[in-house]
């Protein structure tokens, strides 16, 4: 029986993985750039209401997130408690920085409407009449 010749003997074939690594990094950068990375600190004390017809707004630019706790306290995303006049001043400053500023109000489902009205009126007095209310979307 004739000996078969080893075709790969001594050829020292090596796989170059650098093109694959480059491709992985390019895909990673692509997904990072195109991903909609909108995050804000959510206060765990706020239980937002459920709405059957809720729609997630597409436009995110210019949102100022404020929380209204069950007792009516207005709290920003950093945990600072604001009075109505401080919220008005805060919204006025935000409006000066960005003309498309809107108030994103995360009001607790158990809070009295009077407290929500205080926050939305303070925002309007600060020059920002548009209010977005947070709700859970029922699927």
Overview of the molecule:
- With 139 residues, the chain is α/β, with parallel strands linked by helices.
- It has a domain at 50-137: Nucleotidyltransferase, domain 5, CATH 3.30.420.270.
- The chain has three helices and seven strands, in the order H-E-E-E-E-H-E-H-E-E.
- The strands form two sheets. A five-stranded mixed β-sheet has the order 4-3-2-5-6. A two-stranded parallel ribbon has the order 1-7.
- A hairpin with a 5-residue loop joins strand 2 (63-68) and strand 3 (74-76).
- Helix 2 (84-97) crosses helix 3 (113-125).
- The protein starts with 17 loop residues before the first helix and ends with a strand.
- The mean pLDDT is 85.
Strand content: 15-25%
Q: Please report the distance between the alpha carbons of the first and last residues.
A: 72 Å
Helix content: 25-40%
Q: Strands across the major sheet, in which order?
A: 4-3-2-5-6
Rounded mean pLDDT is 85
Structural class: alpha/beta
Secondary structure tally, helices: 3
Tell me about the largest β-sheet: 5 strands, mixed
Radius of gyration, in Å, reads 27 Å
pLDDT < 50 runs, ≥5 residues: none
Quick one: how many beta strands?
Answer: 7
Any guess at the CATH architecture of the domain at 50-137?
2-Layer Sandwich
CATH class of the domain at 50-137: Alpha Beta
N-to-C SSE string, H for helix and E for strand: HEEEEHEHEE
Provide the CATH topology of the domain at 50-137.
Answer: Nucleotidyltransferase, domain 5
- Shape field: elongated
